[in-house]
């Protein structure tokens, strides 16, 4: 995850240097509880998964396993005998740490059979800091995966030698919460089918727009609804894709190419079926590692998949023929690490449903518009480049189930903008990025029971200011200021009555300056500050926690509604 850069000549060299200098950093910390003022240990304000009142059965997947090479660690899974299911809730918990020393951030994923159950990245250590962190995810939707014994593997590839010394350790469990007395089991997906590298899982690298992750599947013939959970992680040249520029100016702007627009495309049997916008995750070594001590970026440690609604295709998928589901990343430039899970709800009143697709206005590829306004003279290069994309489509299909005809229409309007302002001279490299992704989705389902309407709006605002300047005395400084946010507002109505309304908003905003002497030696960082605000709100209550940090230690915890 280390070869992409804001400037191929400057930024990568600085990032590589920082991997070595982190061993001399300041202020060790250990979090005795979740939040400890004055600590540098990795923390987030993320909301933990709410637990039912019943006592869970806990299944250990692996415990205190060392990751010091690139070989996946295997484990065996057996369903909990004392909690046979159906379950009220299934929760994944992971606890990780890395020993003090030098180490990159590393990609981490965990598989049960071919199915991905965790995808994230690790925190970077320092010479005097061995960070530890906790992640957890509600996997109740994936309950069908956990009903049978199978093998699994944890894949956290990590190079350990005389230079890179940090060893990563991990422990993972699944918690199974039984139903309360007389409680009806929640409806979960009847089938979870993986799109991965093989029967033991693994991601697939998508290095260009033409590369695909494809799986040909023999499916049940009574599909009511279908969804695809998509994860596409930017790697290598694409790690900092939001900093990239058009190919014709990439050299003079010292940047990566293919513009700053990426988008995951979903198809069924070659027909466009959905779009999964790419979230601009920034890892703990990204741009300036000191930005992320102690607060990691949005979802950095625990990615959230994008769920594509494929229900209009349910009738087609139920025809008894094999079908191929595929992913690709538009403008991929080596590369995206991809996996997905196809989630199916089945009609328990019929062995087979009929139906078909009646309308589809989704085009195979977007049509981004590029604008360049640059001035190149003896003093350097300055001006702006931008790329925009607008998508608007509707897909309609129907199934005839055991209880009647159900028609589903999925409509989406997706807007993307990335605008970058440059000022490059012999003594300065300044890049100011403003990016926004707005996804408006409407799902209308009509049956003899009435009309269900779901409205969802997701937004991914990002701003990055990168400024490297050389002073008259030869010393230099690199300033980085970032704001990244994930917002999701979802409302579900049935026959005009609101059944649920949920807001999730997660915002992280760090800043830091790296200082270098006239020989290019790192002399320390100054002005480090960061904050994270995580808000969850629904009709039953809310959760709001704000964390602040300065000089790379936690300075404040503000709890709002609980």
Structural topology:
Layout: H1 11-21, E1 57-67, E2 73-77, E3 87-98, E4 107-112, E5 115-121, E6 132-138, E7 150-155, E8 168-178, E9 191-195, E10 204-206, E11 213-217, E12 223-234, E13 263-268, E14 271-277, E15 306-309, H2 314-317, E16 323-330, E17 336-346, E18 354-360, E19 369-377, E20 380-401, E21 404-424, E22 428-447, E23 450-459, E24 462-470, E25 476-494, E26 497-508, E27 511-516, E28 522-538, E29 541-550, E30 553-559
Antiparallel strand pairs: 1-8, 2-7, 3-6, 3-8, 4-5, 4-7, 9-17, 10-17, 11-16, 12-15, 12-17, 13-14, 13-16, 18-20, 19-20, 20-21, 21-22, 22-23, 22-24, 23-25, 24-25, 25-26, 25-27, 26-28, 27-28, 28-29, 29-30
Provide structural commentary.
The structure is a single chain. Helices cover 3% and strands 52% of the residues. It has 562 residues and is an all-beta fold. The chain has one domain (11-559). Strands 18, 19, 20, 21, 22, 23, 24, 25, 26, 27, 28, 29 and 30 form a 13-stranded antiparallel beta sheet that branches. Strands 9, 10, 12, 15 and 17 form a five-stranded antiparallel beta sheet that branches. A hairpin with a 2-residue loop joins strand 19 and strand 20 (380-401). The longest helix has 11 residues, at 11-21. Mean pLDDT is 93; it is low at 2-32.
